[in-house]
Design goal:
The protein is 38% helix and 24% strand. By secondary structure, the chain is α+β, with helices and mostly antiparallel strands. The termini are far apart.
């Protein structure tokens, strides 16, 4: 009985240590790693391209030259303190799926780029 009780206590202690370790790792990551620099932060109304990970994973020769980025889409909503975005088509049709920030790339309209390079 003592061995079973000791085993249960050991398992509880191990689970608590694992929880503390994961929280500590999360705090370190949040303080030291930024997925997107502040200067490149995406906001509501920005145009973005979405990475198509199905094409990226495919090894088929027929999809090798296909575009891996779809879009442009407009950011419809950015939930507070989250890493995903809700997008919409340019005609304001909302997309059902939400997208993680590391699958998005800011889209620049050619006219805007030409004006900024002239300055």
């Amino acid at each position: 009985m003592h061995q079973l009780d000791a085993q249960r206590q050991t398992e509880e202690l191990a689970a608590e240590n694992l929880r503390k370790s994961r929280l500590s790792n999360k705090e370190y990551f949040d303080q030291h790693k930024r997925l997107r620099p502040e200067s490149q932060k995406l906001s509501v109304g920005d145009l973005v391209l979405v990475y198509d990970d199905q094409i990226g994973k495919s090894r088929s020769q027929s999809t090798k030259s296909n575009d891996r980025w779809r879009g442009p889409y407009r950011i419809r909503e950015v939930p507070e303190d989250s890493t995903y975005y809700r997008l919409e088509e340019l005609d304001r049709t909302s997309l059902v799926q939400s997208f993680v920030g590391n699958r998005l790339r800011k889209f620049f309209v050619r006219g805007d780029l030409e004006r900024s390079s002239a300055l």
